[in-house]
Specification:
- The longest helix has 24 residues.
- A hairpin with a 2-residue loop joins β1 and β2.
- Helices cover 35% and strands 36% of the residues.
- It has one domain: Trna Endonuclease, Chain: A, domain 1 (3-Layer(aba) Sandwich).
- The radius of gyration is 14 Å and the shape is globular.
- The chain has a 5-stranded mixed beta sheet.
- It has 2 helices and 5 strands, in the order αβββαββ.
Length: 120
């Protein structure tokens, strides 16, 4: 079981690395990774011009069990919003914000699906 857990964690870390590289390639600045507040974690906090972007990264080895973005639950959304509020409070951010999901499927070939403004 431990090796399965480690593989799951590695898959997630690889996905976050891929997502960060993807965002940097698009001109985003990565401000923080794995920001934690209470029980919530924001995978990537990035900035694009005057927009602060909170990014949830979901990675799957394949789409066999559904698309990665389908794994973002309402509970997860609520936790992300609370953590984002705390980050905004701590940093004094006063401009626009956005919540994105980056869904990564590793095989049969690497696919990166960027859902901008995922939470309304």
């Amino acid at each position: 079981m431990a090796s399965q857990t480690n593989a799951h964690i590695r898959t997630g870390q690889n996905g976050e690395q891929t997502a960060a590289a993807y965002l940097i390639e698009l001109g985003y600045t990565i401000l923080q990774r794995n920001y934690r507040h209470k029980r919530a974690e924001i995978d990537i906090i990035a900035q694009q011009d005057d927009v602060l972007v909170f990014v949830e990264v979901k990675t799957r080895t394949s789409a066999t069990f559904g698309y990665p973005e389908m794994a973002v639950s309402t509970k997860k959304e609520v936790q992300l919003l609370a953590a984002a509020e705390e980050y905004i409070y701590q940093t004094g951010w006063e401009k626009e914000i956005r919540f994105d999901i980056i869904a990564i499927t590793l095989s049969p070939q690497l696919e990166v699906h960027h859902i901008m403004d995922a939470f309304h």
